[in-house]
Amino acid sequence: MAERRILMMGSLAAVAVLAAGGAFLALRSAGDEFAQCRGSSAGGGMEAFGTAFTLTDQENRRVTDGQVFDKPSLLYFGYTFCPDVCPMDVARNDLAVEILKDQGLETQSVMITVDPRRDTPEVMADFTAQFGEGMVGLTGSEEEIAAVNRGWRNYYKAHDEEDKEYYLVDHMTNTFLVMPGNRTVEYFPNAMSLEDMADRAGCFLRAAS
Q: Which GO molecular function annotation, any one, does this entry have (predicted)?
């Protein structure tokens, strides 16, 4: 009986491996050059994430998505008054950029604010200056920020009903990998380690080169 159970488990494992291999081949045959790199799935596919935009960077310049995403980018939605999660996530993303740079792979860290009322270009400049050279910080009007957050399906809500100055903002904490041409190909959860993020992002960058 035990031997039969072992054989059945072995057969099921083999079927699972074959199914995974078949799915991989199907993606390759469908023209997905990143099939071997993917670790996430989303309703509508990753191509459902993203939108065209014009926002204001930390140098107070109006920039389009085409100008921002002129290289592979680790895109994060956060805010400068965030007490803990945002600085830690942005620091991880910045270190991933450095690891990839050491491997000869160019990318950049980008943060779009979810708190445009307080995150002026000057405030964004002070924030991005704390991280690696080349980080991009983007802000805009309430309407512009709402539209770009909808494009990446990012939920956020300011708790400013009682305090209009020192409020906190709830928001999602995924980081998106956006390729040139504003093409979102993957997202990395907040819990992902620096090493795993760099490895996964590196797979996409190598596949694209």
A: metal ion binding
Dist CA 195 CA 190 (whole Å): 13
**Which residue segment(s) compose the domain that 25 sits in?**
1-31
For residues 108 and 98, give the distance between their C-alpha atoms in angstroms, rounded to a whole number.
Answer: 9
| pLDDT(12) > 80 | no
Angle between helix 194-208 and helix 85-102 axes, rounded to 10 deg? 50
In this prediction, residues 37-64 reach a mean pLDDT of 88
pTM: 0.83
Residue 159 assigned ligand-binding role: no
| 82 assigned to a ligand binding site | yes
pLDDT value at position 32? 74
Residue pair 120/145 in contact by the 8 Å Cβ criterion: no
Task: Find out whether 86 is annotated in a ligand binding site.
Answer: yes
Both 74 and 166 in a single domain? yes
